[in-house]
Amino acid sequence: MRLLYQTHARFLQQLVGPSCVHAAAYTRTADSAHRLLESSPQSEFKHLIQAELALQAAVLGLLEGETWLAAWQIRRCWNHVQALKSSKHPAPARLRGLFEVCLAAVPDRYQWVLDFLGLSGSLTRGTAELIRSAQANTFFSQQSKVLLLYTYRHLHAKPTRAWEQAQKEQQAGRSPILWNYLLAQLEIENLNGAAAQKLIREIEGEAHRLPFIWWLSARISMGRSDFAAAEEALARFEKHYGGRLYQHDCGMRRAALARLKGDRQGFQQQVKQTLGLPEPLIDEDRNALKEVKAWERAAQSPQHQLWLQLKMALDGGWAESARATLSQLQKFQLNADERTEWNYRKARLEHKLGRIDQALTCYRESRKYPAKTNTWMQVASLLHEGIIHEQLSQYRSAKKYYTQVFDYSNYSYQSSIEQKARAGLLRVQLALSAHEP
């Protein structure tokens, strides 16, 4: 079952956040799994692996536009899950939880696939199954804990719950590489770069076992303007990770490093090199490519370096640096897109620091301007306003903002934003039902 452990966290990330699963990795997993199937006489074990493969193949099918293939794979997975329904073993409990959570998180544009199959997922049931598996104190509990962390963070919109879970596991000293890394990610999201840096330094000696430690280290170092450390971490990540994944992301970061150091020629060369890379395979690289294309057009702007500095400060978890840069940008005459971005970035800063009134004001301000290229920020502001009202138990207001997300189309990060808005709608509808007489 070791190969399943290695793919689960990445698989759920693909559905609700950063994407790490791609066709080549799935093929390698499938080949290994089929060898295990041939050597295993246990029917329960076979159902488990076949269900895992079918679920991952379904996600890949959706990502690549092969919706009928995805539908067939979802049905296959459901059949195997049903065969394991009466099992008391924690492994099927984790699988049932994963299946329910994944179906509940399917984006709206693919909902017709589930309707056609007569299937639906329940975030509540899925979470309960994952909790049961996590508490079983077996080999599978570790996998379920990682899945629960991402479920709380992205689908339940409970970052504090996710952080508490990661901190508990990290302090217990179980799998320190994994939990230091996951907790560092959450500390960055909370704009606590110093805590993230401390966690990463504790495990940097083991980064060859998990190269993304260097990738996270590069982000942290860039955010605090430690360019030499960032360049070294990027170089190590590229050397040990290899392959076609994260090429555009690393190219984008190298371009940003050159620009922040005042090396315009190096910046232009890195932009040209990144634009010349093969077609990106994962969301991180697609988003990085969009950023680089935008930078190519905006490089002559007098405040371009400040915008890069702001993005890298937030991306690395450094709140004070971000606040100082926002103050500098405010001195410029900003156009509509820039005003949208300034207010959105300020809102995210205030939101993460717990200044809710200021965050709400800035979210609303970010939608006042006719943005051309930053539409996604205006849609994301609706999503975050919905999350705030939901956390304040103002469920009708939350529903209004979540619903408005679906009034927009053809913008960056659409799939991720819509998934989170749909999960939010499911949560508030349950809450409203519970409060109705």
Radius of gyration: 22 Å
Mean of residue pLDDT values: 83
User: Count of helices?
Assistant: 23
- Main beta-sheet annotation: none
Given the C-alpha coordinates, what overall shape results? globular
Distance between the termini: 47 Å
How much beta, percentage-wise? under 5%
Q: List SSEs in N-to-C order.
A: HHHHHHHHHHHHHHHHHHHHHHH
Structural class: mainly alpha
Strand runs, count: 0
Residue windows where pLDDT falls under 50 for at least 5 positions: 1-33
Helix content: over 70%
Tags for this entry?
single chain, 437 residues, mainly alpha, Serine Threonine Protein Phosphatase 5, Tetratricopeptide repeat, globular, disordered N terminus
Characterization of this structure:
This protein has helices at residues 2-16, 23-39, 43-63, 67-83, 90-104, 111-117, 123-134, 139-155, 159-172, 176-189, 193-203, 212-223, 227-241, 247-260, 264-275, 283-298, 304-316, 319-329, 336-352, 356-366, 375-391, 395-404, 414-435. It is mainly α and 437 residues long. The protein is globular. Helix 2 (23-39) packs antiparallel against helix 3 (43-63), helix 18 runs antiparallel to helix 19 and helix 19 (336-352) runs antiparallel to helix 20 (356-366). The termini are far apart. The model is unreliable at 1-33 (pLDDT under 50). Among the domains are: 1-156; 333-437, Serine Threonine Protein Phosphatase 5, Tetratricopeptide repeat (Alpha Horseshoe), CATH 1.25.40. The longest helix has 22 residues, at 414-435. It has 23 helices and no strands. It is 76% helix and 0% strand.
